[in-house]
Structures are given as C-alpha cells and as structure tokens.
Design goal:
The complex is a heterodimer of chains A (440) and B (305).
Chain A (H helix, E strand, L loop, with lengths): L8 H25 L2 E6 L2 E6 L1 H22 L25 H17 L8 H26 L8 H18 L3 H23 L4 H21 L1 H4 L5 E2 L18 H4 L7 H27 L1 H11 L1 H6 L4 H27 L1 E2 L6 H14 L4 H17 L7 H15 L31
Antiparallel strand pairs in A: 1-2, 3-4
Helix pairs in contact in A: 1-2, 4-10, 4-13, 4-14, 4-15, 5-6, 5-7, 5-13, 6-13, 10-11, 10-13, 11-13, 14-15
Chain B lengths: L1 H31 L6 H22 L4 H28 L8 H22 L4 E2 L7 E6 L5 E5 H23 L1 H11 L1 H6 L4 H27 L1 E2 L3 H16 L4 H21 L5 H15 L14
Antiparallel strand pairs in B: 1-4, 2-3
Helix pairs in contact in B: 1-5, 1-8, 1-9, 1-10, 2-3, 2-4, 2-8, 2-9, 3-8, 5-6, 5-8, 6-8, 9-10, 9-11, 10-11
Classes of the chains: A mainly alpha (440), B mainly alpha (305).
Chain lengths: 440, 305
Amino acid sequence: MTTPASTSPGRVFSALKDAFLAAIVALALAAPMLGFQVFVSGTEIQLEPRWWLVGYATAAVFVGRLIFRLVMGGDGHMPVGQKWFRRAGGRPLGTPTSGGLKFIAVVALIFAFAFPFLPFTDRYILDLAILVVTYIMLGWGLNIVVGLAGLLDLGYVAFYAVGAYSFALLAQHFDLGFWFALPIAGILAAFWGIILGFPVLRLRGDYLAIVTLAFGEIIRVILLNWYDFTNGPDGISGIPRPTLFGIPFDRSSEGFAATFGLDYSSQHRIIFLYYVILLMALFTNFVTLRLRRLPIGRAWEALREDEIACRSLGINTTNTKLTAFAMGAMFGGFAGSFFATRQGFISPESFTFIESALILAIVVLGGLGSQIGVVIAAIVMIGGFELFRDLEQYRMLIFGILMVTIMIWRPRGLISSRTPSAFLHERKQISAENVSEGHG
Amino acid sequence: MEYFLQQLINGLTLGSIYGLIAIGYTMVYGIIGMINFAHGDIFMVGAFIALIAFVAIITLGITFIPLALLLVLIIAMVFTSVYGWAVERIAYRPLRTSFRLAPLITAIGMSIVLQNYVQIVQGARVKPLQPVITGGYTIMESAEGFAVNLSNIQIIIIGMTFALMTIFSLLIAKTTLGRAQRACEQDRKMASLLGINVDRTISLTFVMGAALAAVAGMMFLLLYGVIDFYIGFLAGVKAFTAAVLGGIGSLPGAMIGGLLIGLIEVFWSGYFSVEYKDVAAFSILAIVLIFLPSGLLGRPEVEKV
C-alpha cells in the first residue's frame, strides 16, 4: 500500500501541514468544552479550568491525523477500507456469492439452535442473545419498510410500543395469556401502521421521515401522560410470562420441570424465551423472503427503485405502501409483545427515539434489504454495546462513534450487494454501485 | 384578551428561537438535501459554550452587561461554528456521493456523539444561570389585575431574530457567497464546472447554520436559565418540524414555520394542556403536510420522468 515513492519528503510535509490544521481545529473544539468545566456550588456558578485535557486532545488529533495521512495516502477523502479490504480478484469483501451467503445462513441457523446448550452459554450470555435476537427481529421487520419498500421510517419504535402495551393491557384487563394476546397485539400494531400510513402516503423521502418521527414521539407522549389508561411513567408491571402449551415455568407440580421430570432450574424459562424469540424472528424472515417472491413483494422493491415507473405500470402505490407499513408494524408489534413478556414490566422509557435510531442503524449498517446483513449488524451493535458495559459513561459515545465510522467505511452497509427477486436464466448479485436507492 | 396577548408574546419569543434553529436545517437541506440530524445538538453545544463564555467573562471582571453579552454572542458563534464545520467535515463530506440514507445515519451517530460528549465533559446535571437581563414593560393591565408583560429579554430575542433574519436574507440574496449557495442548491455539478468551490460553499453553509444555532442556544439560556445536554433533541425535532412546515429549503418559510410552531405550542399549553403541547405541534405538522405536501412556502417538487 505505501510504496517507497509515496513517503517522499513532500508527502511527509503535506501530511504534517494537514495534521497541524487538524490540530488547530481540535484546539478550537476543545478549548471551551474541555477546557472549562461548569460546576454549581450553592447559588454560585463557577468554572474550573482543565487545560491539560485540551492539550491531550489536540496532541491526540495531531498524531492521529498524521498517522492516518501517512498510512492511508491520498487526501484522506476516500472511504477507508475500500482499498484495504479488497480481495485479490478485486471484488470487495462483503459482496459474497449467493452460495456463500446460503452457507453462512445455514451455519448461523444451526449455531442459533444449538446456542443455549453450548458449554460457554450461561444466564448472562443467554439474556444477551435474547436481546440480540429481539433486535434482529425488529431489524427484519423494519427492513420490509425501509429495505424493501424504500420508505424511510424514523418512528418504528411506536409499533414496538403499541405491541408491548397491547399485550400488557390485555393481560391486565382481560387476563389474556401471551400466546392469545400475541396475534391481537400484531393486528393492533398493523392497524396503527395503516392509520399512520394513510396521511403520509403522499409524502416523500424526508417528509415521511419527519412525520414518522413525530408519530413515534406522539405515541410516547400519550403513553407518558394518559395516566388512567397506561399508568403513565410508572409503567405496567406484573405482565404474565409465556407458557408452553399451558405449562408454566415454575416450581409447582404442573410446572415445566415437574411435567418433564427434570430438576427445577430458572434457566429453563430463559432457554424457552430464547427459542420463542428465535422462532418469531425466523418466522419474520420466512414471511419476508416468501413475500419478496409474491407480486406484492416485487411491487415493494419496484416502488423503492422508481415510484413513477411503478405508477406508470399500473401498480397501486397506495396499497403497496400501506401493506409495507402494516407488515412492518405487525412484526414490530409481535416483537413488542415479546419484550413485554420477557421484561414483565414496561414503561414509556423503553420506547424513546434512540430505539428507532438503533433499529434503523441496524438495518442501514447491515445493508438495506439484506437479511443476513441485519443479523451481523445486530450482533455487532448490541454485542458491542454490551461489551463496553463497564465503561457506563462512555459506551453511548463509543456507540455513536462506531455508527459514524462503520458508515463512512462501508456506506452501503456490511452486505451491500443485492440479490434480485426476479431474474432471467440465472440469479446474479448486483453490486451496490449499480443500485439506485428509493427516493420515496 | 390580556391572556391571549401574553401568550402571543411568549409564543413569538419561543418561535424566534425555533426559527433560528430551523434556518440551519433548511439551508443544509436546500444545498445538499439531507436532514442534518445533529443540528439540534449543535444548538445545545452553542448554549453550553455561551454559558461557559458568560461565566468566564464575568470571572474576568467585565460587569457591563451589554458588552459582556456581545462578547458571549461572538464567542459562542465562533466556537459553535467550528463544531458545525467539523461535523460536516467528519461525518457528511466523505458520504456526499453516497446514497441518501448513509449521511442520515452518520447524522444520528453524530447527534449521539455530541450529546454524550457534552454529558461526559460537563456532567449530566442541569446547569442553571441566574437571570442576567431583568426588567421589562407592562403593556396593559386588565380590570382583574392581569398584567401583560413584555420583558427586556423577550424584546432582545425577537429583535435580534429579526435583525439576523434580515442580515442572512441579504447575505443569501446579494453576496457572492449567497449566489454560490443558490447555484449549488440548483445544480452542484454545474456550479463546480463554473468555478464555484462546492466543498467550501457547503462548509460555509454549515458554519452559518451553526452560528445561528449558537445564537438560538444563547437566547434559550438567557430565557430559561437552565440547560442540560439533552435540550438539543426536542428543540431540534421541533425546529425541523418548523422547517418542514414552512417549506424546506425556504429561508422565510423556516422563520414562519418556527413562529407558528412556537405559537401553537404556547397557545396549546395556555388554553388546553401542557402535557400534550408536543403532540399538538406534531399533529399540526401532519395535517399541514397532508394538504400542502411541500410546506407553506416550499416549491412543489417537480417529478421528472
């Protein structure tokens, strides 16, 4: 990569100059914010200077930028990694063949089913796995709306909340169990998807984004303030746990352990929850993959690529968009019900905008429309988030930096190629560069 | 009547702040067609820099308030601009030729970064500031003794917003930079063929937006007297709503949208319920967009086949 000619004195000099400029910017950024800390003592407000921090930050930026320029070459504008992560044949990593993808999917599936019984799996790891699979399911649900139909939805968490609260309230008032409430919650979420869908059908792109964001906030504010119905910020607790065909997971004589002649272990319930969410997620994936082959799925993809062409061909864009919204919302609702039953307690705090952003980030980072990409992105994001648990304060910061870096490194997401649903003779991967993205 | 008038004044004050933030959104959207999601947090950074500058200046012994405020204003605008510039340079420029969702994700990432950066370096607790500008006028008083007050800070906020609006409109309409911006807005490739430095024009757009957000941040600080690291999110969403309401890409539209959102919010809290003021603002947005999909002053999008 760094040829001898590229480390000529002129190059080093220009890198030094660049690093110096970057350091000046860093100084300006750091001087007020890092340089002084505001603290309140009594009624007085005072400043405490911390100049050494500014020094560190500036020096770090200088050194970092210098190394970056010397190693990377070029002017630093190009996306990092495009050059490093290229295979010998010139095909960038992350454009795997269909066979390769299928192989990965099968291995991942076997691993996922065997996971609870692997030797290193303890309660903590299993809990984390449940969380990751929940996000995979949400990612797959949102992928229908954003990845397939190309409708930018920044308020997906609203449907997650509708699902969770539907189940919680049905359980509280009508004493319904998880399995009975699950389809109702899904239907209610889908219904809300249609309610939201109607007014926004005429909107395009970013207008749609902002209205969906607003909708997500509206739902949260209502949950927070409609005290009689939702119990406001206190949330709803005592949500029933799911049962296995009526067999509860407890110590009683009708419990799971007693029925199957096992010693009671609280682990059983966790393993059961893991399989429930895994099957729900796989169901989402299965439905999505099948829908892509139906006329409606093809209409979604056509809509993403070109709305005007779609209309010219006589596709009813209204119905197409509405079904996409409803389908995505329904899976969000399912995931929400699962969340409620797993936690046993829900409050509006769990349904903030940051959740929507996280799910959208998983979909986009994974590669729009790519099912396996969502899996990888969910593992990286949620796993990475958990990895930095000890750095309580810094982990959101690291999370944000990660989001920015991955996106700059691979703007098209981790799996950026696209497998066409309709093809002539042979299914070929389309590289990301040749795919235009939806504008609606 | 008196109550109405008071709410009108309060709404205009709040709306001015939203309008100033909205201009940043609308300019960036006009020129590169992306939602600068981190703009609300730039506003928050501006408020923090203003607070730090204010305390520093008082500590240095400058007690003549107008001078101190002017210095704070300049410092906040300059340093916040650097933040605006850096965000564009780090997170948006490498993705300019990429597809349109990519910069949106980095923008959300940048917003998370800024929020947590400020939370870590300045602490999560709310930062109060004693009222700096006091006094005001009583415009009228009803028979029951309800007085309509127009405080000095409200006069300053509304006055300064209109002054800045005039300056910026002139800047866009008359100067070379403004012409370059409008050219980039219409056709970036053609503009660069005609010798306009597109990168620099876009950077300057971000700098201008950040400077206005800094002013808004400072006003927010002076008006409410408390800030924390999280004020950027809601203010940002409201300001973006304002920009969309006014017709995104239109400068006067952003200002009108801001004022409308401010008025809706204040009147809703004044006459109905405080809890649902955000719901009211967002619902109005949805309703306006259903009937006027390109906002109040926006040009309808031309569909080319």
